[in-house]
From TrEMBL:
Protein name stated in the entry: Branched-chain amino acid ABC transporter permease
GO biological process annotation, one example: amino acid transport
UniProt keywords, alphabetically: Amino-acid transport, Cell membrane, Membrane, Transmembrane, Transmembrane helix, Transport
Subcellular location: Cell membrane
Lineage: Bacteria, Pseudomonadati, Thermodesulfobacteriota, Desulfovibrionia, Desulfovibrionales
Length: 288
């Protein structure tokens, strides 16, 4: 009985944690480049997922095309978010910039309601990942899909940041924007790029979470807060730590879901997030 209970926690927790990990990577990327917390990150996931669902309803998407389309849709949404928030207020106070992302999240939520309505929508599974059994551990296809997307996203992002000229420019901006500007780096473009890449990550996360829970107009806030919590747990110091923060949060939440009734699950989850944020490492003031 205990083994079955643990297997359920691991399967559900990894599915949730992988999504939170992808979201946390986006939070970390934007925070590193601009020292800004983007509270519209969850709505980027929502709009990206709804856009791909609509596109899939119009045409038959192969897995490779679905991945490309999701990344492109999220990239454009993230770029649009930057153009309407930080891009207009580069010299504004951090509080004003933060509130602009909050306002943008409400606008994006309104767009989702106008375009797709308030009823939950269940997107198709666009990535044909089968169930996996690793010894006594069983991973359902949703869990396998979320983990594969998360790990590949983390590896590709890490290679981009360390092996490409543009990625090194982004890292230079995150370490010292003034020095990077003196070296000829277009720091404004790097800020915009961090938003765009975070949008692409959020849209890819939608491919994982959409078939699990469906897409609802009000889901962005919850996913965004949990992605933010995961990034804070990871300390914003490295992609691996941030992703591990997402996995940890997902496993703990899955244990709470199986332990508590539905009425108390969300309350317990957000209480846990508050505790984790209070005791999280303070290294987030460092640059990765």
């Amino acid at each position: 009985m205990l083994a079955l209970y643990l297997a359920q926690i691991i399967n559900s927790g990894l599915a949730l944690g992988a999504v939170y990990g992808i979201m946390a990577l986006g939070f970390s990327l934007i925070f590193s480049a601009s020292r800004l917390i983007n509270f519209a990150q969850g709505e980027l996931l929502l709009l990206g997922g709804l856009s791909i669902m609509t596109l899939a309803g119009v045409m038959q998407l192969s897995p490779l095309v679905a991945l490309f389309a999701a990344g492109a849709a999220g990239y454009l949404l993230g770029r649009a978010l930057f153009a309407t928030t930080l891009g207009l207020t580069l010299r504004a106070s951090p509080l004003r910039q933060l509130m602009l992302t909050v306002a943008a999240s409400l606008v994006f939520q309104g767009v989702a309601i106008l375009a797709w309505g308030k009823n939950p929508l269940m997107p198709p599974r666009l990535l044909p990942i089968p169930d996996l059994r690793l010894g006594p551990l069983f991973l359902g296809r949703d869990t396998a899909t979320a983990l594969l997307l998360a790990v590949v996203s983390m590896v590709v992002l890490g290679l981009f940041l360390t092996r490409t000229r543009l990625g090194r420019a982004l890292r230079a901006t995150s370490q010292n924007a003034v020095a990077a500007r003196l070296q000829g780096v277009d720091t404004v473009f790097c800020h915009a790029l961090s938003f765009a890449l975070a949008g692409a990550l959020a849209s890819l996360a939608a491919l994982a979470v959409g078939p699990q829970t469906g897409l609802r107009y009000d889901m962005g806030l919850g996913l965004g807060l949990k992605g933010f919590a995961a990034a804070t747990i990871g300390g914003y110091t490295s992609l691996g730590k941030v992703f591990a923060g997402g996995i940890l949060l997902g496993l703990i939440e899955a244990a709470l879901v199986l332990t508590l009734s539905g009425e108390f699950k969300e309350t317990a989850t957000y209480t846990l997030i508050i505790i984790l944020l209070v005791i999280a490492p303070r290294e987030h003031d460092e640059r990765p």
